[in-house]
Design goal:
The complex is a heterodimer of chains A (354) and B (180). Chain A has 354 residues and is α+β, with helices and mostly antiparallel strands. Chain A is built from eleven helices and ten strands. Chain B has a two-stranded antiparallel sheet. In chain B, a hairpin with a 2-residue loop joins strand 1 and strand 2. Classes of the chains: A alpha+beta (354), B mainly alpha (180).
């Protein structure tokens, strides 16, 4: 497989578009949980019932187009290899929960991968929609349109008091999780992030790292999302989240400026050292890769590194994960072999920029 | 410390397990912990079971032995789930469970959603036809009140007619069995 083709697979087409504030906010996402009113929820439904759901979705929505999105492709999880499934998770197109019932779970996916609809995850339907950069409101509007489109055919489990009836009480009500993925190296370097996270949590929002729990997020990437789904409208939830994200963007910009002014040489050194590691290392573990990619991305955003585009870093963050590496190697790799391949891939990718 | 399963990511979760009286420490990354079933697949990264157990002041989720209730518990007629089971797994089995356990749910939602027990958001267009009308009527009634206070009777009469038309529509919906 050529590297070019491989890269094409790693980056969803929508990620190539630049969104508002995309130096800090990488993507905006809305997820809606929905259920069929007359089918038992996936956690306890039997195979026959689950098949009723997948068959219905496959028949009614596969190859149908919806507004700006291309035709939806219907993919049954049972037809995918372990590595393919892992790649879908690494691209955040499906969740690991979807694989619990591999035999009876499926997804609908739009051609540009902006929309993915998981079928028989924890709920019968989990639709999610991504837009690049910071545009939660627009993401919500489009998710609503899509939801209305599905609802023409599906009799949703809904109650006036409890809203959309979800399997998990934490999703009842709107069934909505709104989230943004933020790159916050300035707040991490200036150690402000440890102060900010508890404050944000107190506001009913959740902050977590992209690749793990806790404040030490890999690659300084944080996901901020709403915790509460009942008692507030979707628009209010999104607007509350937006105002916090707006503040975080301001803090991050200030921190970056402060770093440049107060310790510009140290910052430059940090950035170029990381760039050097990415260009020359022969063994690169995922933690170091994430750290260096974050520093180089910061260097690009601050105009310190000019010859590479910010987009390739999003791309590298995805294709240096285990699923993608193994897909590239066309087989299962031990951790040490993955580190060697990761280094090779990153080197080669950076060479393509020059 | 690296994760003892994948040896790749950092171990962010540390458990102490007692197996046959021997204490064993387990160090895992979030992903491997999920794969082993220590964490539920929850997006928020913590185990909802544990949370709900905390809320109900029950035993921790790891304790598998459930005291057998003397009294036959109320089971959901559609999926067969009892409230005890709901508390144990932290998930409803089907939409009907909400109605089966309705008298016990306010405290659950109040705790999970910071005191909120009522949905305030989107109404499905088709199914919620009558709900939409109800909302519209509420909006128009307050508009009507406002217009009357302003002594704008001409417009008020129009709004009143609009409300009447909607109320007729609402009755039709109800007769069509649209509302639960």
């Amino acid at each position: 497989m050529s590297l070019n083709h491989f890269i094409d697979e790693a980056l969803s087409p929508w990620m190539r578009e630049e969104g508002p504030d995309s130096d800090i906010v990488m993507s905006s996402r809305i997820r809606l949980a929905r259920n069929f009113s007359d089918v038992v929820f996936p956690i306890i439904a039997d195979e026959r019932e689950l098949r009723r759901v997948t068959d219905f979705i496959g028949n009614e929505f596969a190859d149908k187009s919806f507004k700006e999105y291309e035709n939806f492709e219907y993919v049954q999880m049972a037809n995918l290899s372990t590595i393919e499934k892992r790649m879908l998770i690494e691209k955040h197109l499906i969740s690991p929960v979807l694989l619990k019932r591999t035999g009876t779970s499926a997804m609908l996916i739009s051609e540009n991968e902006q929309v993915s609809i998981m079928v028989n995850e924890e709920d019968h339907i989990r639709l999610q929609l991504y837009l690049p950069g910071f545009q939660l409101e627009e993401t919500l509007n489009r998710a609503f349109e899509l939801d209305d489109w599905l609802e023409q055919k599906i009799d949703y489990a809904y109650d006036e008091k409890w809203g959309y009836l979800s399997s998990c009480p934490t999703n009842a009500g709107t069934g909505m999780r709104a989230s943004v993925m933020m790159h916050l190296p300035g707040l991490v370097i200036t150690r402000q992030v440890n102060r900010l996270i508890p404050a944000i949590n107190q506001l009913g929002l959740v902050v977590r790292g992209l690749y793990g729990e806790g404040s030490e997020a890999r690659g300084n990437i944080f996901q901020i999302s709403n915790q509460i789904t009942m008692g507030k409208s979707e628009a209010d939830i999104v607007s509350d989240l937006e105002s916090i994200v707006r503040q975080l963007i301001d803090h991050e910009r200030k921190a970056r400026k402060h770093l440049q002014e107060q310790s510009g040489m140290r910052l430059e050194d940090r950035i170029f050292r990381s760039y050097g590691v990415l260009q020359h290392s022969r063994i690169l573990d995922s933690k170091e890769a994430a750290k260096c990619l974050s520093n180089v991305r910061l260097g690009i955003d601050l105009g310190i590194i000019k010859e590479i585009s910010g987009q390739i870093l999003n791309e590298l963050m995805i294709l240096t994960q285990p699923g993608f590496l193994q897909h590239y190697a066309d087989g299962v790799l031990a951790a040490e072999d993955r580190d060697v391949l990761r280094a090779t891939l990153v080197r080669e990718r950076l060479l393509m920029e020059n | 410390m690296e994760c003892q399963d994948c040896h790749e990511r950092d171990a962010t979760l540390h458990f102490a397990q007692s197996v046959n009286g021997q204490k064993k420490e387990v160090h895992l990354c979030e992903q491997c912990a999920k794969e082993r079933g220590y964490l539920s697949g929850q997006e928020d990264g913590y185990s909802l079971q544990d949370l709900l157990f905390g809320l109900f002041n029950m035993e921790p989720a790891s304790q598998k032995t459930e005291p057998v209730s003397q009294k036959e518990p109320t089971r959901c007629p559609k999926c067969g789930m009892s409230f005890t089971e709901f508390k144990r797994i932290g998930k409803f089995g089907c939409a009907e469970c909400y109605y089966t356990f309705s008298d016990k749910l306010d405290p659950v939602f109040r705790r999970v959603h910071s005191g909120n027990i009522r949905h305030q958001g989107k109404i499905p267009k088709r199914k919620g036809g009558s709900l939409h009308i109800k909302k519209q009527i509420l909006g128009l009634r307050s508009e009507l009140q406002h217009l009357i206070e302003q002594e704008n009777f001409e417009e008020a009469a129009e709004v009143r007619d609009e409300i009447r038309a909607l109320e007729r529509k609402q009755t039709e919906h109800r007769e069509a069995g649209d509302e639960r």
